[in-house]
Amino acid sequence: MKKIAIIGFGVVGRGCADLLSDNAEQIKKLTGDSVGIAHILDLRDFPGTPYEALVTHDFADIENDAEVGTVIETMGGSHPAYEYTMRALRAGKNVVTSNKEVVANFGDEFLREAEKAGVCYRFEAAVGGGIPVISPMISMLGQNKIREVRGILNGTTNFILTEMFTYGTSFDAALSDAQARGYAERDPSADILGLDAARKLVILTALATGKLFPVEKIHTEGITAIRAEDVKAAAKIGCSIKLLGRCTVGEDGEVSALVAPFLLPEELPLAGTRGVYNAVEVVGEPIGNVMFYGRGAGAGATASAVIGDLAQILCSGRHSAFPIFEKTSSGLADFANFSSQTYLVLDRKYSAFAEKAFPRAAFLESENECVLLTERMTEEAIDRTLAALGAEAISRIRMLG
Ligand code: HSE
């Protein structure tokens, strides 16, 4: 029997234990041996559950148990996940995680430490919930030049946007529903302000370029400023609004990365991604466009990715290909140079001036506001034009393209 430990027994940790038990025979066939949970580290005791006898409150019990070969880290947050991960790797144990925060912040250190210790560090569940995207990017797309990665990377916000705009649910009710279903982070502001998607984008960008950019260097906007009027205006021009994470890699290797709501023409496959579903589109040379789609959050989907990593480790050990990341801020393009067609809403008093200031813009019909779609312009040029008008945008949403 292969012994493992789970640290953090919340929605995902419990989902992993349930999956190991529910599909035990299948997992045994897959990996050639049965998998047993030796320890569960949590602050709680879970009395009356089958897991009660496995609970410890001391990580040293796991670190010092030579029979435990792999630690599953589903704690979330940077600390103490960072310290426990380092201790596990240094003790010669593989680590599998669903924790995007710790991967985005310290993935470079963990991968180096794993290499040194001759063990594996894997994080399929950190991006896209149950969607296999990290492993395919490494093992099947690594021979391509990756030019762009773009995706709907947060299930909670996609669920909220879909509920609000399809069924007319209020933002608060949709958020509560997402939390009740176990999609949202403990602190849902990480979801709705775009930080969770930014962490995932940092990981995908590192897979595409080898560079692990600091999350705080990524231009990040959430969904809290999106109004029902914007969604209606977008629909009138054949678009939906989605929170996207996007990175592009120029010929010179410069990387442009941002998380923000985008207008997506309805015919794009990403536009049809609804509810808690995530989708990631990778554009590479010579492969072209590849799309990954599936449930981006929730216990079962995320557990599937965690246990998938575990199964790969048990099958192939440390010899499976894995990247090394370099933590750096260099090579990240200045957001002021990002260019796109942009949907702008201004107070109606600017209408006459806006027509002169944005001479090649398309002006959309609106009774109360000045609504326009600019030609392709840089952020800096839009800022400069708005400053000259003395106007602040009520809404400002970029068009994908
Ligand atoms: N809160 C995250 C989401 C969970 O909604 O996508 C999965 O990473």
Fraction of residues in β-strands: 25-35%
> What percent of residues adopt helix (DSSP H or I)?
25-40%
- Number of separate helices: 14
Bound molecules: L-homoserine
Instruction: Give the CATH architecture of the largest domain.
Output: 3-Layer(aba) Sandwich
Kindly report the average pLDDT value: 95
Classification by helices and strands: alpha/beta
Computed Rg: 23 Å
Number of strands: 20
CATH superfamily of the largest domain: NAD(P)-binding Rossmann-like Domain
Query: Ends: how far apart?
Result: 51 Å
CATH class of the largest domain: Alpha Beta
CATH topology of the largest domain: Rossmann fold
Describe the 3D structure.
The chain is an alpha/beta fold. The chain folds into 3 domains: 2-129 and 301-327, NAD(P)-binding Rossmann-like Domain (Rossmann fold); 147-294, 2-Layer Sandwich (Dihydrodipicolinate Reductase, domain 2); 335-399, ACT-like. Chain A, domain 2 (Alpha-Beta Plaits, 2-Layer Sandwich), CATH 3.30.70.1150. It has 14 helices and 20 strands. The protein has helices spanning 11-22, 24-31, 60-63, 81-90, 100-117, 134-139, 155-167, 171-180, 189-192, 195-209, 228-236, 299-316, 351-357, 379-389, and strands at 2-7, 35-41, 55-56, 68-73, 94-97, 121-122, 145-152, 211-212, 219-220, 239-249, 255-265, 277-285, 288-295, 326-327, 339-340, 342-347, 362-364, 369-373, 377-378, 395-399. Strands 7, 9, 10, 11, 12, 13, 16, 17, 18 and 20 form a 10-stranded mixed beta sheet that branches. Helix 4 runs parallel beside helix 5 (100-117), helix 5 (100-117) runs parallel beside helix 10 and helix 7 packs across helix 8. The longest helix is centred in the N-terminal third of the chain and has 18 residues, at 100-117. The chain is elongated. The structure holds L-homoserine (HSE). The site of L-homoserine has 11 residues, from helix 7.
